[in-house]
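agent: user wants the full assembly modeled, not chains individually. Plan: 1) parse entity lines 2) check alphabet per entity 3) run joint structure prediction 4) return tokens. Steps 1-2 passed, four entities, 490 residues total. Proceeding.
--- entities ---
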Amino acid sequence: MTPDLTTTTKGPRMEAQDKIETQNETQTEAGTLHQTLVANIRNLLIEGGLAAGQRIPEAELCQRFGVSRTPLREALKVLASEGFIQLRPNRGAILAPLDPDQIAPIFELKGALERLIGLTAAERATEAELSRLSTLHLSLNDTLASGNLATYTQLNYDFHRGLAEATRNAELMQSYDILQQKIWRFRFLVNDSFSRIEESFAEHEQIMIALRARTPLDLAARLEAHNQKTCDAMQRAVAQLDQPG
Amino acid sequence: MTPDLTTTTKGPRMEAQDKIETQNETQTEAGTLHQTLVANIRNLLIEGGLAAGQRIPEAELCQRFGVSRTPLREALKVLASEGFIQLRPNRGAILAPLDPDQIAPIFELKGALERLIGLTAAERATEAELSRLSTLHLSLNDTLASGNLATYTQLNYDFHRGLAEATRNAELMQSYDILQQKIWRFRFLVNDSFSRIEESFAEHEQIMIALRARTPLDLAARLEAHNQKTCDAMQRAVAQLDQPG
DNA sequence: CAGGGCGATTTTGCATTCAGAATTCCGGTT
DNA sequence: AACCGGAATTCTGAATGCAAAATCGCCCTG
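--- prediction returned ---
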């Protein structure tokens, strides 16, 4: 019952393609128009297409995606329930402000999920999943050498998502996805200044070892620590944004 | 006409009032109509106003809540994104089936949240929150004597929600709420057959002790165990539903 | 020139309408 | 009598229309 586990290239939750940019685009995508719209707008917001706190121009999005206001507003309501935008009565929607104070709670919650992922994935991961994660890990190594930050970030996301999938817990996956999407917005905010590739990869090495050894407590601890370090790094990066001197 | 839609008892997430029953009801509630609609329909679904898997009668709900299809469909889309209903393209929405196999994943995830709640609430709860939780705990004790299952369930929910609030983690709260709502549906499913009031209260005693002592690890462990026992009891109750012999 | 009030314009929220898909109904066939 | 096919009906998805709220622009006053 897990919807769409075939994420491959782009950011979190890429159920849909990147664009229905023009007015008369044929919509042959697998999902419904509604789901596509939600995904497209979410990606637009996550990837910084609009400034945080900025008013979301309903009419403009209608034209951009070639739909009328009814389905667009449905999508906005869903995105509001996910916390990406804020609906103000009679005053339209704004992109939810990115408050640096949100980073800690988000990662705190994610830490709890990472622990559960570690505890259960160590026991439940199939051999196929193990080898797929190994492949991803090797790709990470390659990217580390090439120094391509964007690719590394994406592969890193795929790796962690693959680990979460190994838990076979759809509830967990859903929460994990939403958290990752929220973090993704911060990633785009801090952009280049956020790079701890070498350190991150070293932690991944240990994570892979614990996973292959199928030692739940160890894997959980490594994932929690990895999460904590990512949180710290992101908070430092955001702090640097505020006062770049 | 067929389903009895009169709901009385209160469930999780009661931000909104119970009814906008008539056509020309004045809407003076704090939230927007949209939020009210979502909450009302969610309560309706959670509390078993419709059978699981049953088709959701759009027109009937429109009449019931006195709104047109546009805001109603917006609410349905949100509820679908929360997982309470399933949207089938061109074939309407159905109340998401209650699969007993969902119980384990839901409680597994909730266990991870409970642990985090225990770890952090033990340190962050204010004295005011402590005393409020104590009051709730005493009310639980009173209800235990009276044997009122519905009241106990509601107070029990309030208690755990209060504990979650003490974490000061809005992300955690949101995930916790959604999980509780999902569990609430199962509660209404098993109804009376699910009663472990005495045992549950005994666990709450220990939880209160650990909370007052502000011992994070102990509180976390107690909450996790409490969660696990609740899960077990619910699975047994559901199993009994299948074969009531 | 700054600040405030008032009308015009834009935007929102919801109702209504319309095209197309799905379901139902009903008669014909085997 | 059961089954199949097609028309009529119902329902869904989305566009459009409309009233109310909010925003903007302008003018006036101090």
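agent: reporting back. The domain at 1-97 of chain A is CATH 1.10.10.10 (Arc Repressor Mutant, subunit A). The first strand of chain A starts at residue 85 and ends at 88.
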